[in-house]
Amino acid sequence: MRQLIVLGFVGLLAQLIDGSLGMAYGVTSTTLLLAAGIAPATASAAVHFSEIGTSLVSGISHHKFGNVDWKTVSILAIPGFVGAFAGATFLTSLNGDAATPWISGILLALGIYVIWRFLALGGRRPEFKGRPGVKLLVPMGLVGGALDSIGGGGWGPVGTTTLLSSGRLEPRKVVGSIDTSEFVVAVGGSLGFLVALGSSGIEWSIAGALLVGGVIAAPIAAWLVKILPARVLAIAAGGIIILTNARTIALALGASTPTVSIILAVLAAAWLALIVHAVGVERRVRRTEPLAEVGAEVTTGS
Questions:
Q1: pLDDT value of position 166
Q2: CB-CB neighbours of 15 under 10 Å
Q3: Residue 301 CA from chain centroid, whole number
Q4: Which range among 38-47, 177-186, 243-252, 293-302 shows the weakest confidence by mean pLDDT?
């Protein structure tokens, strides 16, 4: 019972992060399950089955708060399903260790770009023009879905990072759309694991505990996405991208545990400082906007 309570808390924490920043449910949950000695395929399967419920509740919550771009979700759904199913059935036997550092390097660079893009605005409001198209979303869905099944996480890091860096959707709709489309990805991955492992290979108690915690956190996370300003949300998500992928790259290069810890501590301190800075900028912008509106009215009236 104690283990199930701990797993429930893991699901709650993972979904709170994922639902707020568009990534990390699979990565957080799978990492902790592997650390507990659970086999990779079994851990990934349990995470995917729990995600069917958590992503459904998360999608409903994000829709309720207006965080979903349904055109983006509709284009992402099929390639995400196909990629996740293929990753669970045909690709689980492949060794993805060689490709992981390269993928992490690309995501790390995009994470840095996301932060730079929103910091470079200064006091100006971010603008988002158009929607991401089929040429971007289809390959992104296939790759993100496959990586999600192979490594137990990848839909959020690939999807959220790519859409944020494209600058075509405001951050809250990026997070909401990725979280909502993750339901289809979770179904595809889960069906693939049933084919590959059979129902006896699924740890249903683990999936259930993660599900309960995730369902509790999903509405809270969607509300946070609704109220957070675009620049603060984008920098928060960019920091998670950088921290996650910096750790992967450092470990792949053979860095020791103390070295990795120091690197992450420095990056985390810089990330928190940037969030504080973004909050300060947002407050200054909100104070000056009423003055600008008053000035415009006076000019128009004269």
A1: 79
A2: 31
A3: 48
A4: 293-302
Residue 54 is encoded by which pair of tokens? Answer: 């958590």
- Residue 297's pLDDT band (cuts 50, 70, 90): very low
Q: Which tens digit of pLDDT belongs to each residue from 144-197?
A: 888 777 766 678 878 887 888 777 888 888 888 998 998 998 888 888 878 876
Q: What would you measure as the largest C-alpha separation in the chain, in angstroms?
A: 78
Amino acid at 167: G
Q: How many CB atoms lie within 10 A of CB 145?
A: 35
Name the phi and psi angles at 173, rounded to 5. -80, -25
Interatomic CA distance for residues 145 and 48, integer angstroms: 11
Q: Does the pLDDT at position 244 exceed 70?
A: yes
Whole-angstrom distance, CA of residue 120 vs CA of residue 134: 28
The structure's pTM equals 0.72
* Residue matched to tokens 């009236």: 301
With contact defined as beta carbons under 8 Å apart, do 240 and 17 qualify? Answer: yes
DSSP 209-242: HHHHHHHHHHHHHHHHHHHS-HHHHHHHHHHHHH
Rounded Cα distance between 284 and 279, Å, is 9
What is the three-class DSSP state of 259? helix
Going from the C-alpha of 273 to that of each of 17, 119, 190, the distances in angstroms are 19, 12, 39
